[in-house]
Amino acid sequence: MSDLYQHGTGDVLVERRDDGVLLITINRPERYNSLTMPMFEEMNQIWADVERDDQTRVVVVTGAGNAFCTGMDVAQPDPTPEQTLAMLETERKRVATVLRIEKPIISAINGPAVGYGLSTALLADISIAADDAVLIEGHTKVGVTAGDHAALIWPLLVGMAKTKYYVLTSEKLSGAEAERIGLVSLSVPREQVLPRAMEVASQLARGSQQALRFTKRALNTWLTNAVPQHELSSALEIIDFASADYAEARQAFREKRPVDFPSARIASAPAN
C-alpha cells in the first residue's frame, strides 16, 4: 500500500483493487459508521492522500455493515470549543480537497447516510444508493446550521424548493426517492450497490484518464464557484455548536427523549 493511507485507527479501511480502483470503507458498523473526533482528521488525510496518489484512477467510498455513515457519533464526550473549531476547519479543508481531486469519486450508499455521511455521499461525482437506504440531511434536528455540504451542492442537484424542504425539515428520503428527484445518480437493490459501484469504477478506470479528469474539472467549476456559500454555512455551524439548542439536542439523545429546543419555547405572557 506504500506509505499512503497509513493513519492507523482501523476505523477507516483503504484497499487497492484492480485497474487502479481504490476502495475506502468507513468501518464502525457497530455504531452505524458514525465518526469519532479523530476520524474527521483521518478522513481529511485520506482524501489528501488520494489527491497525490499516482496509482489510483477512481475512488469508491462505502460503509461497513448495514450503514453508509450516520455523521458524528453524538454518544462521545462533548467536544471542547477548541476541538469544535479544529474539527470544522478540518471539514472545510476536506470539502476543498474533494472538490479539487480530479480522479472520479463514486459513493456506494449501502444504508443510512446522515449529516457528514450524506455530505460524503453527495460530494462524490457518481452516487449509487440502495433503494431502501435512508438519507437525512439532519443538521437542523440537532440544532445546528446545515454547514458541511447542503448550501454548496443541494441547490445544484435538486433546485432550491426541494433543497429548502428537505434541509430545513431534515425529513428522510429513501434511495429510490433520492434518485427520482435527482439527489443521487442511481438507486439499485441493496445487494447490488457495491458491485454496481465497482463496475462503474472499473469502467472509468479503463477510460481516457485525461478526458475524465478534465471533464470533472470543468463540471466542478459549478461547485467551486459556490464555495463562499459553503464557507458561510460552515461559519454559522461553528456558532451553533456553542448554542443551548445543540447542548439540549445532545442531552436529549443520551436520555432517549424528544428534543426541547430552548429557542423554540414560547415565552409566558407577562402577568397583568
Automatic annotation (TrEMBL):
Gene3D superfamilies: 2-enoyl-CoA Hydratase, Chain A, domain 1, Lyase 2-enoyl-coa Hydratase, Chain A, domain 2. Pfam families: ECH_1 (PF00378). CDD domains: crotonase-like. Belongs to the enoyl-CoA hydratase/isomerase family. This is Enoyl-CoA hydratase/isomerase family protein.
